[in-house]
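Subject: design request, 270 residues
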């Protein structure tokens, strides 16, 4: 079996240029298969402080802009900014509105002024950032005192069924690696931001077959982007081996795919 405890950073994450290109290509298909992304983003919204309105909010890693539009509806009197590293996503999101400005930018080096935002909302984006210390540092810089960083990310254990099934076929990297939950805790505690909540919640989706899962990952732009992934086409024998191994996980609802989701709410001290 593949060792799920392999540290994912920094050298084991995909090059961010490849991430940007992959998600740009997926812009047109993303929303059609984004049920998990919608559910996670809504749970993150539910964790925001009640009865509170930021003067300016930032949707960090906005993707197709779904939650930019939701945030715009939640905070109609606030100014909204949306940032993404993928130009294709911004091109898709911009005409649909929700935020006043859609900006190409990197979470590790935000193109925003210091003390300029009351809320940074980031759902299922920062798992692609190798330098999460820089992400937290930039969030602390950009937030106003009393401002909130709310993020949802993925950690080790995500897609373990797919990883373990591939592990029975060959020793190559087929499944994206993610940071350990405890590492999130350590980095958040050391960030200079006050940790209001930090938890790991499993989300389990079910599929009729392996092809349905792998098709969805590709449509999301979240298929295998790791260094060391096999090049070229995967042979029929290995695909057959994957299918046979994954069938060992089958449940009454179908083939499970587990996502270990990290939810965090942090506040910049006054």
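Subject: RE: design request

Done. Sequence follows.
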């Amino acid at each position: 079996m593949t060792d799920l405890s392999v540290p994912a950073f920094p050298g084991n994450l995909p090059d961010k240029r490849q991430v940007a290109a992959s998600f740009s290509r997926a812009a047109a298909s993303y929303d059609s298969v984004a049920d998990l992304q919608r559910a996670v983003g809504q749970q993150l919204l539910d964790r925001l402080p009640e009865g509170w309105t930021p003067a300016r909010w930032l949707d960090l890693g906005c993707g197709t802009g779904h939650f930019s539009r939701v945030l715009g509806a939640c905070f109609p009197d606030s100014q909204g900014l949306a940032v993404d590293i993928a130009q294709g996503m911004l091109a898709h999101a911009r005409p649909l509105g929700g935020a006043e400005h859609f900006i190409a930018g990197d979470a590790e080096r935000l193109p925003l002024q210091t003390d300029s935002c009351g809320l940074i909302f980031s759902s299922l984006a920062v798992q692609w950032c190798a330098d999460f210390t820089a992400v937290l540092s930039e969030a602390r810089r950009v937030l106003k005192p009393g401002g909130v960083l709310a993020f949802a990310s993925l950690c080790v254990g995500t897609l373990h069924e797919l990883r373990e099934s591939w592990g029975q076929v060959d020793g190559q990297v087929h499944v994206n690696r993610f940071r350990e939950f405890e590492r999130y805790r350590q980095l958040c505690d050391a960030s200079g931001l006050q940790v209001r909540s930090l938890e790991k919640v499993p989300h389990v989706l079910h599929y009729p077959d392996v092809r349905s899962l792998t098709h969805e990952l590709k449509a999301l732009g979240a298929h295998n982007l790791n260094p060391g992934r096999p090049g070229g086409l995967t042979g029929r024998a290995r695909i057959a081996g994957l299918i046979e191994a994954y069938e060992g996980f089958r449940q009454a609802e179908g083939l499970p795919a587990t996502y270990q989701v990290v939810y965090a709410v942090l506040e910049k001290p006054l």
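The CA atoms of residues 98 and 251 lie 40 Å apart.
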